[in-house]
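Budget justification aside, the reviewers requested a transparent look at the raw inputs and outputs of the sequence design task funded under Objective 1. We therefore reproduce one unedited record. The lines immediately below are the structure tokens for a 229-residue chain.
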């Protein structure tokens, strides 16, 4: 039997972000990273308000659900949208195994977390680079995942913000060992390894994987750097 999403999030995981994939051949590209060993597929949802770009919604999650499930993997949805509590149910229904929303995007963190948990998915809260790690303190016991943004959200291909390293350690100290600490933005083998030493265990990588000539090989390079399965 394959591992549950909660079990998957406990390990060292590199999570390819489809934001940088070629959407004209999305199944093929996702297939390449699944084949290379990826078990967490990261889907970036942007609404044109919380962040300027607009990307994808539940239809893309639904379109990937079967392929990802068959590989024993999970879909990790990262909502960069305002008032996420209005949308989370739709994403879980579409097949999201974890739903992460931003602490800056709603005054109702606990309520949104309850909705996601009630629908049966893993709960994540993300914080932007300028948001203190302490923003996670009161919600930590309700989380499966804490996402520490290592670039400003909205675009792939940005440089890793170096002072994130100390912040990752603060996030790990706040959430404890039972919660996954995910990093997102500017992740390649070197920044992944340094984030890992600071306490991260889930490493989202978009351009480093899908802009490479061989996404499967690029995935494996980052996975090797952090000892991911
Ligand atoms: C950016 C998204 C990221 C993005 C990362 O706001 O949340 O998941 O895909 O892209 P890279 O890995 O290229 O920095
Ligand atoms: Zn993301």
């Amino acid at each position: 039997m394959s591992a549950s999403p909660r079990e998957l999030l406990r390990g060292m995981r590199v999570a390819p972000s489809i934001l940088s994939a070629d959407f004209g051949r999305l199944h093929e590209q996702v297939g390449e990273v699944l084949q290379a060993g990826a078990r967490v597929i990261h889907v970036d949802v942007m609404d044109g308000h919380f962040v300027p770009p607009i990307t994808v919604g539940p239809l893309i999650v639904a379109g990937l659900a079967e392929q990802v499930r068959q590989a024993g993997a999970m879909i990790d949805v990262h909502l960069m949208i305002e008032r996420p509590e209005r949308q989370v149910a739709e994403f879980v229904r579409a097949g999201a195994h974890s739903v992460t929303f931003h602490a800056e995007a709603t005054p109702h963190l606990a309520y949104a977390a309850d909705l996601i948990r009630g629908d049966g998915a893993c709960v994540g809260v993300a914080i932007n680079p300028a948001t203190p790690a302490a923003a996670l303190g009161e919600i930590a016991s309700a989380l499966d995942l804490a996402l520490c943004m290592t670039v400003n959200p909205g675009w792939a291909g940005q440089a890793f913000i170096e002072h994130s390293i100390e912040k990752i350690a603060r996030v790990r100290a706040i959430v404890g060992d039972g919660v996954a600490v995910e990093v997102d933005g500017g992740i390649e083998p070197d920044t992944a390894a340094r984030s890992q030493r600071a306490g991260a265990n889930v490493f989202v990588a978009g351009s480093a994987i899908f802009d490479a000539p061989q996404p499967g090989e690029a995935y494996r390079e980052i996975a090797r750097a952090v000892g991911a399965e």
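The chain has one domain: 5-226. Residues 58-70 form the longest helix (13 residues). Computational costs for records of this kind are itemized in the attached budget.
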